[in-house]
């Protein structure tokens, strides 16, 4: 016997639901709900005892609401639930009638979407004959604590404890985002888009029970992994847990997305930690995964550098990245937008070609309205490679910025000799010399190094360099004069220019 | 004149005013010449008016036709074309009795006369094969009338022949005028609800409830045609749906009474009937229902004047 | 400090008030010349609490003189009604439904002329100045002393009324006062026109009476502005009152109820005013009397004023008590002090029951000592039940409603009525009317048909509310205190552009007091 009070128990609903006509027989603790039905306003369905009617939409037949309340009373149905968006209709005489007849009428503060979510959750709850969903909810609340947990991991652990099996969470056709202890990988087929229904026995001979959910444009899967010979009841139980859990996961990710800016800086912080190697790898990977930042597997890094700051550029790029037929990551970084394409295994040459083509299309699409340059690094595996590849992509983007409009797309692989030179500059014998050469600049500040680099990158064009740096041409000119003076170099000399250029490159990413 | 026994020669002419009762008609009062002008113009179209019948007994039009008959020295039929008050001309009895409302004569608030349907139609004889046509005429006339009301002073006199007196019994809703005046006297004299009860019992009517108006949603305020108000006291909750007229009463959510039954909302202190636009929040009211007066074409009447004809999606419930 | 004065038919009451606090209150008999009564009353006030006339910030007077004069057809002048609306409206000429004695008392002269507007402001026909001049000449020939001008839909456009009044004023001279219907009433030509005619008929009296008010105050050294209470419990300036005496018509019960509210400190309550013969029950909502739903007739003339909703039952201090312990509706009325048992009379009245039950002390209690205890209890119960039923009829929700008892007969009422809230018996209830006048605020009201184009409803509603507020401010209200106290919109069917009748009332405190 499930009561209305139980269905409204989770804090999210409890805080938003107002039960009109509460008290007496309509007190939520006394209202037994056996079925949750979605009803379109104006409908004439026959009602049965225990039906909780979740009403969508409005009707020009105002009287229908009163008649519904009456039919609920006469049929012994549990009550009516509407959302506050429709209060103007449902909150009038029908609410007064509900009060009078002792019919529970739940006014949910929110939209029809919230109603739908409630209905989905309540249905799962009602279909739980043995495992009390209240237990799941309690577990969730315990895992969540007072505030939203920082990662999904503790929530997954709670689910796992409830069903005695591993639980995981991933992007549909994409990477695994979170999982409990026992799971190391999930076969790609378990992450594939699927038609809800029977559990999947995958190649690894485990049984996978999955629940898809969406947040914005992104589709996710919450799944449990059970031994292949699990009893049917255990599978059903796991199904209920992932179904109910997906509602929470969806909310969790939705809140994450809403906090987009917060997310960006969080991602950067995690990335910085990963690149600096200061945090234990396992917990870092988990946090990164929670932030939608898959650090494991193979990557193809890219960097997008707008000539001037563009408000809302992040959204434009996210949108353009839809072109890429793979999981992509994008985050604001180093004054531009860094990102990578994620591969769960080593991509073939043909696949790489395809993705690079897609990225080029992303550039073309973006560059139509925005002055921007894009660099693409080399594909590789692991966090260390990702760090290098991102730097490489940024170099490529800076190089691209010096090119003609519409052609500012440079792939590190295509840099040829430049790339070789650049990689040589990273070699042990070159570095001390480079650092010695540039030492006098340290007193002037970092912007002088950047100015010099941009000036050299743009083949001694003060105008181009100023654009790349976002400063005035005169500033660039003044700085270059000062650098000339301090370093005592002749920038008209090709040899001296090359030496400087290489030295700058070599020391660029190292603490001076 | 009793329509069921009328044998005189000539025709019965329907008269009434269409438009907004509360605003324009209470300001731009009729000159008094409108009804005679209408009948005179009809005569020029071959209508031999020998009696007057109100378009509708409800509201202003019931008495207006009586006054017009007095002005014209013609008898008035104890009948009307609606049995109550109705907003649309195609709900009136000629529209489903095979009698065309055309030609019709309109007289606006400035005294200007208009003829709708120029063909001279001396004797529109009831003919069942013409029913569809008569309904179309009703709709057509309704559109014209609304346009004229908009273009002129907010109201317009409408008149047309409903056929020969000897056959008028097949068209009209009989005996509504005397019934209405009887009820007028009863309500004017009423001192208490219990004093009203015997009169209700005699006709099969009943008190649906009483109390104060606890909520009101006026028709038209949100663009919807139908408004409502609730009446509550210690007993059941009444909900009355209304447009220009009261259309349906639900008691505790159960439909208790709908058009074409006569639904009256009375001031609880004076027992005088209130119009839909007179309902105010917190007013004390009594809601009563009387069975409708029925024409011979009873089924067509209930269909044309039932809830569906007002855009309400439920079956008629009569007391 | 303010002074509130209630000039009634019998007594002239005054109160001295500071905010909502009553500093002093007195009664004096009303005199024929009115002034003497006011001066006597002010003397009494001063004796109770000395004040410097220069410290008085405002004087508010409530009076029933005008309504009494109209109902009794006394002191009315010869009136002509001019209606602008031809060719429309001819079937129902002005004063068509007036009682004969009032038609006679006012001369009953009426004229129809071209003019008027449609609901949407279009002209019905243009105003013809020559026609008005011809009518003016006829008025002069017939010795008309006051004119009421009405025009079709003047609440929408008062242009013709104003122009016709200008022509009439020029032709007839300043001695003839002119009342415009658009300044007085709301939509509904006959009711508005009737009010304008009644107003015109009282114009001479208004000059005298309001002049008398002003003179007596000036004689007393009070230079503060003078206001008169209106029907709805708001104030008008003395100059306005001279032009629109009709606006005082139902200020009596309004002031009584609002005074009761101040005395009791309640904003929402029922007020039971128990007199000698009847008990009048009204409901205060937000400190204002709830208005009646239906049209009211005054002296047999239909007006479309809104009046306080008052329900009367036949129970008062002088009500006869039968052998079956039934109380009222017959009463000894003002002969109570000679006919009641406790005053040595031979009639058993409700007051005797109150004394026998120990609820009041007056006269000689020994003269009711013989009454059977159960009989007295039954009669007391009967009174309580009847009054409770009356209040119940008036109430609009089942929430507890406090009841304020005022009037000399309120001793008949128990401390709690069955099914109702606490019974509040304020001090000073005898001068509730004067208090009601003194606390009155300034109001502004509109009642118009608006054309609401699709999507503009909010704008139109805002416009209407603003117009009401502006009117209140124009009339002297402090803008910061003005609030909307009543709002109703009724869409009119058939008409284009969603023609909607909007009624809106704004009220605020008197500026500078």
Structure description:
The complex is a heterotrimer of chains A (512), B (319) and C (513). By secondary structure, chain A is of the alpha+beta class. Helices cover 47% and strands 19% of the residues of chain A. Chain A folds into 4 domains: 2-126, HprK N-terminal domain-like (Udp-n-acetylmuramoylalanyl-d-glutamate--2,6- Diaminopimelate Ligase, Chain: A, domain 1), CATH 3.40.1390.20; 133-258, 2-Layer Sandwich (Beta-Lactamase), CATH 3.30.450.40; 282-415, Alpha-Beta Plaits, CATH 3.30.70; 423-507, Arc Repressor Mutant, subunit A (Orthogonal Bundle). Chain A has helices at residues 4-7, 11-14, 63-75, 87-90, 93-101, 112-126, 133-144, 153-163, 188-191, 232-258, 260-276, 281-290, 313-320, 349-367, 383-401, 417-425, 430-438, 446-457, 462-469, 473-487, 494-507, and strands spanning 2-3, 17-20, 32-33, 35-40, 51-56, 79-83, 104-108, 166-171, 176-179, 200-201, 206-215, 218-227, 298-306, 327-333, 336-343, 372-381, 409-411. In chain A, strands 2-7-6-5-4 form a 5-stranded mixed sheet, with helices on both faces. In chain A, strands 9-8-12-11-10 form a 5-stranded antiparallel sheet. A 5-stranded mixed sheet of chain A has the order 14-15-13-16-17, with helices on both faces. In chain A, helix 15 links the parallel strand 16 (372-381) and strand 17 (409-411). In chain A, helix 7 (133-144) runs antiparallel to helix 8, helix 18 packs across helix 21 (494-507) and helix 19 (462-469) crosses helix 20 (473-487). Chain A is elongated and about 95 Å long. With 319 residues, chain B is an alpha+beta fold. Chain B folds into 2 domains: 11-174, 3-Layer(aba) Sandwich (CV3147-like fold); 192-310, CV3147-like, CATH 2.40.390.10. Chain B contains 7 helices and 14 strands. In chain B, strands 12-11-10-9-8-14-13 form a 7-stranded antiparallel sheet. In chain B, strands 2-1-6-4-5 form a 5-stranded mixed sheet, sandwiched between helices. Chain B has a two-stranded antiparallel ribbon with strand order 3-7. In chain B, strand 11 (246-251) and strand 12 form a beta hairpin. Chain C has 513 residues and is of the alpha/beta class. Chain C has 4 domains: 1-74 and 202-249, ATPase, nucleotide binding domain (Nucleotidyltransferase, domain 5), CATH 3.30.420; 79-201, Rossmann fold, CATH 3.40.50; 267-426, Nucleotidyltransferase, domain 5 (2-Layer Sandwich); 441-508. Chain C contains 14 helices and 23 strands. Chain C has helices spanning 35-48, 65-71, 100-106, 129-141, 159-172, 189-201, 203-219, 238-243, 251-264, 336-339, 350-356, 373-394, 432-438, 457-474; strands at 2-7, 11-18, 21-29, 58-63, 79-86, 109-114, 146-151, 177-180, 226-229, 234-237, 269-274, 279-285, 288-289, 296-298, 301-303, 311-313, 319-321, 327-331, 403-406, 423-424, 441-450, 483-491, 500-508. In chain C, the strands form 5 sheets. Chain C has a 9-stranded mixed sheet, sandwiched between helices. In chain C, helix 3 (100-106) links the parallel strand 5 (79-86) and strand 6. In chain C, helix 9 crosses helix 13. At the B-C interface, helix 1 and helix 4 of B face strand 22 of C.
